[in-house]
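Deliverable D2.4 — example input (structure tokens):
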């Protein structure tokens, strides 16, 4: 088994992929803040059990499937092409029918960036710790 196949590292990779996809969705919401009848979207956060596997009972994806980045990757077998989307966001609607609240979207983007930085830091430190443990440093 490769070091990167360990459940904890796979969970961190899935979390980082989720943050990347969420950043794309939030940027799309902001870019359409003046589009009539546009409804903002958000992604449902993946749930993990104590072993680092996604929890099917909690609405997770079962196994940790590979996700597509910018539509250029090959689809994995058995995995979905994207994360679930939460369409129940946005309750303020302007007369033009647009429900994007720029302040809320900017707060979400900022929180998403901080969480992504924390996940990448944990991933990097975990890899460094494992390399130290097997004497590769």
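Example output (designed residues):
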């Amino acid at each position: 088994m490769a070091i990167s196949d360990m459940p904890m590292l796979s969970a961190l990779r899935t979390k980082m992929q989720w943050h990347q996809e969420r950043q794309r969705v939030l940027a799309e919401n902001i870019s359409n803040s003046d589009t009539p009848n546009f409804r903002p979207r958000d992604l449902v956060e993946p749930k993990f059990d104590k072993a680092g596997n996604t929890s099917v009972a909690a609405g997770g994806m079962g196994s940790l499937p590979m996700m597509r980045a910018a539509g250029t990757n090959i689809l994995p077998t058995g995995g979905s092409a994207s994360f679930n989307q939460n369409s129940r966001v946005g309750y303020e609607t302007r007369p033009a029918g647009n429900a994007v609240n720029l302040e809320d979207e900017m707060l979400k983007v900022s929180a998403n960036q901080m969480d992504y930085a924390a996940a990448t830091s944990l991933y990097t430190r975990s890899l460094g710790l494992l390399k130290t443990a097997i004497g590769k440093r």
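Residues 26 and 134 are 40 Å apart (CA to CA).
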